[in-house]
């Protein structure tokens, strides 16, 4: 069976002094179905890139993919939905000020994934974020 679906590609803008240069990563992620929507998580203070992307697929699923350089484009979690996703939005709420192991202060909260479905329904799921840098465990809840 021939599959003509293009792979998921990652692009980034270079940091200063070469600001504005578009870089394409050589690694690709084959998706199980066509991508219909996506959302990037907020870039954390002191970081230059988001660590998560949520991807909505035409087969009624949402996949959370790592953008961390140590495991870039690795799937972290997947959820089946009752209808096709139409929009996604990752937001951080309920923050508490914390200090990490390096003494850097910042706000740590819960990441919420809002999923808009084609059937005019909004699902809100919690992505649990670890306190250590780079450690995310994703758990979808109803």
UniProtKB/TrEMBL annotation:
Top-level lineage group: Eukaryota
Organism: Hucho hucho
Biased composition (Low complexity): 1-13
Pfam families reported in the protein's UniProt record: Beta-prop_RSE1_2nd
InterPro entries: Beta-prop_RSE1/DDB1/CPSF1_2nd, WD40/YVTN_repeat-like_dom_sf
Residue ranges annotated for the RSE1/DDB1/CPSF1 second beta-propeller domain, each copy included: 18-118
Top-level taxonomy: Eukaryota, Metazoa, Chordata, Craniata, Vertebrata
Annotated segments matching region Disordered: 1-21
Protein name from the UniProt record: RSE1/DDB1/CPSF1 second beta-propeller domain-containing protein
